[in-house]
Amino acid sequence: MLQVREVSHRYGTTQVLDRVTFSVEKGELFGIIGPNGSGKTTLLKLISKELPLASGEIAISGRPLSELSTKQWARLAAVLPQTLETAHGYTVKETVALGRYAHQRGLLPAWTAEDEAAVQEALAVVGLAHKMDAPLERLSGGERQRAYLARALAQEPQLLLLDEPTNHMDLSGQVRLLDRLTAAARARGLTVVAVFHEMNVASLYCDRVLVLKDGKTAALGAPADVMTPALLNDVFAAPVVRQAHPAAAKPMFSFVPQHREEKTPLLGGLRPVFLADAVVLASPRPLRVLSSALVGAGFQWATHFVNRQVGLDYDCGDAEEEMRRYLKRHGFSPERTIGMMTAVDVHDAVWLQEERKGCSAAVLVTAGVGNAVDAARAWRHQPAAAKPGTINMIIVVDGTLTEAAFVQAVMTATEAKAKALAERSVCDPETRTLATGTSTDSLAVAATQTGRSFPYAGTATELGRTLGRLVYEATIEALDRYERRRGKR
Fold it and tell me: Where is the ABC transporter domain (predicted)?
């Protein structure tokens, strides 16, 4: 659809584009990203014929730009620039109707049913059908941007050029617009080339991206393939962290502050606090956490860890929501709290910590095995209500863990827990084989994300060996306390 070959451009003696080459297929949503001054807007202006092409070739559907008249170009392509002047005295619909100019003929062209349908469809795509009679100048900046996008869509182009199309829009407006634009492009076979300021928007919506640096091509390809932390760090001169989007098969990016305050070790002053029905760890600063807890599951930042004791007859259709209400009643923010439940007495919790230079960690464990299970033979269990039990563990590390280290810490802790159960000959009551855990265990691994870096936490590492021993010893003691309390009943 669009071919750009060896395109260069200068403003006076300043080279702003240097032999840029790429092509865009029909129906593709193609993004252009890069820092300010990298040549993004200049490239779009060359494609839209706003600037004369002095070096290289640009063609649309095989036809060089130089062979296209203004009206011919307008039938093939439409453009939404970064900044627009408000046309005072026009309604929204009248503004959008200007997009039909390229399809009208004669000195006094008649307004056709096709013109009306194109305008109405464009207004619907951008979500402004209900404001078609409103004066354009009374719209917000984001709404005016959507109106001008509708004008471009009303041209019914084959190629749509957008320079930061979500400029002036709030988050909900951006999402609605880009979702509608993507759907419309797919339905019409419309080719879209857009300059994006926001990397995450480009990653989520673009089929491919062109990354520019100092007017040159730094990368070209699918976002998942080319938008690497190393590349983006080099292009934007700032450290970037890449993570998987939780709902779409796309990468997401965050900038990392370069100057972070170095903080003192945490574990020296961290101790569990016992409430009537919970054991609580309160951190003076947020910790990065990977958790399977009822509240705060997945990766989170948290300041509080609440292991709550419930009765043996606890039964709730929405335990998570009930736990959130519990946390709020007791002054804990559910958004910053890891919340677990157990049926065992939380006053039997075991707290072990080891403070050594470069490798300090602590473990809090409560243990009950009324619903012990052998994971390898759990398929043999009959569906039934869970019996009282649960082994809950909270691990805190003074250090910086990678995502791999978080996962490996979970593995190490699980293996150490299984070993403790074997040492105490805890069996699955259904299969009569050694249990590996309980059916309702929860685990949270937390790290200060300051100080020494730990890329791994398996048993071949110093950190992994420390965690394995602490979890094993704490679980053994917690099981013993559980058995002693049962013996007193």
Answer: 2-239
Statement to judge: residues 328 and 375 lie in one domain: yes
> Do 356 and 464 lie in a common domain?
yes
Nearest to 48 by CA among 181, 144, 159, 166: 159
What is each CA distance from 238 to 202, 253, 255, 451, in whole angstroms?
18, 12, 7, 21
- 181 and 329 in a single domain? The answer is no
- State the virtual CA torsion across 23, 24, 25, 28 in degrees, nearest 10: 160
Euclidean distance between CA atoms 263 and 275, whole angstroms: 29
CB within 8 A of 356, min separation 6: which ones?
Answer: 466
pLDDT digits (tens, 9 = 90+) for 438-466: 988 999 999 999 889 999 999 999 999 99
- Of 255, 288, 311, which closes a domain? 255
In this structure, the number of other CB atoms found within 10 A of the CB of residue 428 comes to 25
- Residue 427 counted as domain residue: yes
The bridge status of strand 360-368 relative to strand 390-398 is: antiparallel
Residue 230 sits in the same domain as residue 318: no
Assign 280 to helix, strand or coil: strand
Neighbours of 255 (CB within 10 A): 13
The Cβ of residue 84 has, within 10 Å, a number of other Cβ atoms equal to: 15
CATH of the domain at 403: 3.60.70.12
**Cα dihedral angle (136, 137, 142, 143), rounded to 10 degrees?**
-30
Pairing of strands 216-221, 208-213: antiparallel
Contacting residues for 328 by C-beta, under 8 A, at least 6 apart = 334
pTM recorded for the entire structure: 0.80
Model confidence at 263, pLDDT cuts 50, 70, 90, reads low
* 3-state secondary structure (DSSP) of residue 148: helix
Whether 276 and 327 map to the same domain: the answer is yes
Q: How far apart are the first and last CA of the chain?
A: 79
110-155 pLDDT, tens digit each: 788 888 888 898 898 888 889 998 988 888 877 888 888 888 888 8
> Which residue carries 């190490």 as its tokens?
412
Number of domains in the chain: 2
Smallest CA-to-CA distance from 81 within 113, 52, 41, 51 is with 41
Contact 185, 27 (CB under 8 A): yes
Residue that the structure tokens 């170095």 belong to: 262
